[in-house]
Amino acid sequence: MKKLKQLVVCISLLGVAGIAPAQEAPQQQTEVQDGIRVKPLSRTRVLVPEEQLNEAAAQQYTAMMSEAQQKGVLVPASHPEVKRLRAIAQRIIPHAPRWNQNAAQWQWQVNLIDSKDVNAFCMPGGRIGFFTGILTSLKLTDDEVAAVMGHEIAHALREHGRERMAKQGLTNIGARVGGALISGIFGIDPNITGTIAGYGAQMVGLKFSRDEEREADLVGLDISSRAGYDPRAGIALWRKMAALNQRAPLELFSTHPGGETRIGDIEAHLNVLLPLYARAKGTTVSKLPPYRTNVALK
To answer: Rounded to two decimals, what is the model's pTM?
Structure first.
């Protein structure tokens, strides 16, 4: 499963055709919600109809999970890790509409694929996927799983993929590319599923910007904190990621810039996030115990 994050971004954008490249004046204004500053949702995104995008994402997610099941890598619903992921999602999802009202109507799904990839994703419409590699390689606590899940959900809530698709003018992709992406992920004969043709180069360029990643970090921790998960887990998570990346460079870092700057952004907002977490736990910030992860971090 090579370049999985890029594939996931592409899968989330499938099925929409005929969109021309668009130019949008820079938006200098920002919106602040409980101390978290974000840019207004891009006007360009309206060039990609939300209903059509969500329908395409639903079809591709279903196809992806069907192929995973056929390959024997879709972890069954009875597995403890699937139950854990779905329980965490059940607590986070009610807080998603505060960042995007349409999320209240999304058809949320959560699944786990057995793969060594250190990755996770959330497609438009609330379709979440985790890979066992991110759970086992990083030995994630529930709080850290919530930080990952919140981050990926936040990309969908802030419609980052939809905006990038509109701006880059990806056209005439359709279901044929969906089949090719599934082929690339699961090793199926491309003659059966179709080919990527000339769109691969465009898709590889789909990466979230630093501002989009910052939004996803903070918005994700906002909703996970409200759900009762410790936002300090975000710091532990990215330190684990950095340590793992030093041993074996991760594809995830091609779209998720790491480093102390990222951690610093989270630390700078703990004065906002910790009260949300404390309130969810029925206590005060001063009474919160230190955050403890399950591995030694430098």
So the answer is: 0.78
